[in-house]
What we know:
Elements: H1 3-8, H2 14-22, H3 24-51, H4 56-68, H5 76-104, H6 107-110, H7 112-134, H8 145-168
Amino acid sequence: MHTSDRNMTYEGAAAPLQSSFQSKPAYRTIALAGVIAGSLDLGTAFVEAGLEGRTPIRLLQGIAGGLLGMETFQKGLGSAALGAFFHFLIAFTAAAVFYIASRKLKFLLKRPILSGTFYGIAVWCFMSLVVLPLSAYHSVPRFSPIIIRDVAVHIFMVGLPISLVVRKFSS
Length: 171
């Protein structure tokens, strides 16, 4: 089936979204943005954990603990690998959401610094106010100076890299 035939089979409002998401440049852009944001965020987390006396393995196990609960710390490298998988799954999902939104909301591409800043804040809010409370940890953020640091990390290591990569590689 030719690309034009495949695109013509989609119906309704989902057609532009599906056809733009299926193009190879979209996957490459999302993958690159996800790898960069995921790596920057995880690298920052490794440094912070090291400064607090925790190992990268323990940090990754902690990420997997969102699903496994406290038993994650008895599961060794398997739960650390699961934590790395979840971390990058979230990064790729954040990149895909921004990419898809940028297809309809063109100002996201025209103002990548502003949109990336707000997107980093939005990702932090979603993770802190939705994902973590629903996780096995059931945690809710409490205001402290650490929140300012965490939001800044999400702005500079997640939101801005995603918005800048999507802008650079969008046609």
